[in-house]
Amino acid sequence: MRELPLLIPILFMAFISLGLAEPKTIAMGTAFAVSMVLGVYHGSRIEWEDRGLGIDEKYITWAFWVAVGIIILQMLILRDVPLIHPAIRTSLNPRLTALTYFLGVPSSVYLFLRGKRYALIYPFTVALYAYRTPVLVGLIALGAAYYEGMKREGRLKLWHLGAAIGVIIVLGLGITLLRGEAIESLWTRVQSSTSVLDIIVWRAGWSGHYHGYLQWAGIKSYLLGGYSPRGLVAKFLYVRTGVTITPTLLGGMYLDFGVFAVIEGFLLGLYYGVIEGAENPITRALYYSTLAYGIVGVETGILDLPVYLLFALGAYIVIRGWKLRRQS
Fold first, then answer.
1. Residue 90: what pLDDT?
2. Secondary structure (DSSP) of 241-298
3. 2: left (phi over 0), alpha (psi -120 to 50) or beta
């Protein structure tokens, strides 16, 4: 079912095209997208044994309820709800919020795959944070799992896709309105993110600017503090301290490694191409979770520790399965 990973390069090209990117950006974006497609193609041909992680289901269930509990705990600490009063989002504990994402997305997908319909409460609960990204990630991950499950069973109907897309749009627009933003701001965001990528491609140089430090900041900022990756993007653009800017999927990689970002694009595609063949429920949960982060990352980039950890777990399972296959 290679069409789902291919959504990422397709959506990326559509995003920067709608954002009216400069010709040089379009050329670099095309090279990046093609490298991802090649990675998916080569990855799908790799044979491996999927043995998952061997984690008992009860621990995954606990992880799910811990994630939901953290959300409720943060509401109690704030004595308010960010979805109702968005200004208080900055008071959320970033480490607890990150733990919510790391535990909540894969555990909800796993439980959904196992027939536990209460897993659907996660994206609606995490919406209380008033951030669009985690809501979209949760819905896309669950939607992808549902889509492939129905397709495997031959029961996929057109209205299923329409309903899933409708829920994502309604919830995304609902959060936008509750945050006091105009619908037009979404279009402005596409254009501004593309403009950021234009500046990065023009100014970073063919070998990049941060040479790996920007993506490393996605780990360091969570553990030790300091500039976040999106804070470093703002610093590169000479924007005042305290502001964060999303660089698109390519932007962060290009700021680090310039034209060599196509190698990261190939490796990302290779990962998706291999792991899309997962059969173990835990591995499939990681696949759908990282797939969702990749799709949303078209605009936000893949630059956060919780996301890195999910990719690392998926890659560990794949590499171990590849070694086992070679030994057999």
1. 86
2. TT-----HHHHHHHHHHGGGHHHHHHHHHHHHHHHTT--SHHHHHHHHHHHHHHHHHH
3. alpha
Contacting residues for 255 by C-beta, under 8 A, at least 6 apart? 200, 204, 208, 209, 210, 214, 232, 233, 236, 247
**DSSP three-state, residue 111:** helix
User: Is the entire prediction scored with pTM above 0.85?
Assistant: yes
CA distances (Å), 60 to each of 52, 106, 118, in order? Answer: 13, 9, 14
Per-residue pLDDT reduced to its tens digit, 7-26 = 999 999 999 999 999 999 99
Which residues, in sequence order, are CB contacts of 117 under 8 Å at separation 6+? none
Round to whole Å and give the CA distance between 35 and 38: 5
Task: With cut-offs at 50, 70 and 90, classify the pLDDT of residue 126.
Answer: very high
In a domain, 83, yes or no: yes
Asked, for residue 8, whether it belongs to a domain, the answer is yes
Specify the 3-state DSSP secondary structure of 3. helix
Confidence of residue 157 (pLDDT cuts 50, 70, 90): low
42, part of any domain:
yes
- What are the distances in angstroms from CA 284 to CA 5, 51, 116, 279, 295? 13, 11, 15, 6, 16
Q: 30 lies in which domain range?
A: 3-182+261-327
Q: What is the pLDDT of residues 212-234, one digit of tens each?
A: 999 999 999 998 888 999 999 99
Residue ranges with strand state E in the chain: none
- Mean pLDDT over 185-189 rounds to 73
Calculate ∠ Cα 16-20-26, nearest 5°: 55
Q: How many domains is the chain built from?
A: 1
- Residue 204, domain member (yes or no): no
Judge contact between 106 and 286, C-beta under 8 A: yes
Is 70 exceeded by the pLDDT of residue 254?
Answer: yes
Strand boundaries in 36-188, DSSP class E: none
